[in-house]
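TL;DR need structure tokens for one chain.
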Amino acid sequence: MQKDDPRSLLIIQVVRAIKELQPEYAIIENVIGMPKAEINVDGELIVIAEYIKRELKAYFINSQNVDFADYGIPQHRKRNITLLSKSQKWEFPIKEKHVTVKEAIDHLPSLESCEKSDIKWHVAKKHNDDHILWLKHTPTGKTAFDNIVHYPKKDGRKIKGFSTTYKRMDADKPAPTITMANGSISSQNNVHYGRLKQDGTYSDARVLTIRELLILTTLPEDWNIPDWATDNLIREVIGEAVPPLFFKKVLAKLIN
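>> reply
TL;DR here they are.
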């Protein structure tokens, strides 16, 4: 969003590539604020959306801010998608019923901290004992800060924090946006929704496994992830990813 940030000028290279290669179709994906941001082009400040229109006059342009959850992706994630086509306007897919996080991953077995399953990538991270205790007493969709007894504390005193931290996902909604910090219980909306147990506590007091993250991002569950990739690196890559199922549906509009 800063006019002098060199990363903002990447759109100039994107436009240049499209003009030189002249593809029949092209997709530009970025943050939802991208179209309204200004860039400096040869000393002229211009809004990116206007720059694209000015430079790519040979194309029909269809730009929208979308939430991928509206297209059958079990994750809320908002991005700007710009579809460019030469022959006619490239339409977006029809919006669909939301897929909840429970519908997407409830078939996987419960796991607690450090536990493993026989399913590839369905392995639970190790967590701090205090964090586990707090989350065992936290219902689905709630934060441990709302607990009467087992809330985040240090030296016996309740610590300050955002209501989106130490928080379980809501089982009956799409997952929140998966971030690069998806391996941290104390980061935003990262904890499994949990299942109520007979003793009144909740299972799965942990962040999502890599397998669960793959499903919620619609990446292939049998993705051949290199053996050298660390858990943290894989989680960061998934946190940066945009759901491929959305783009499959976008491309399907070209053959329907």
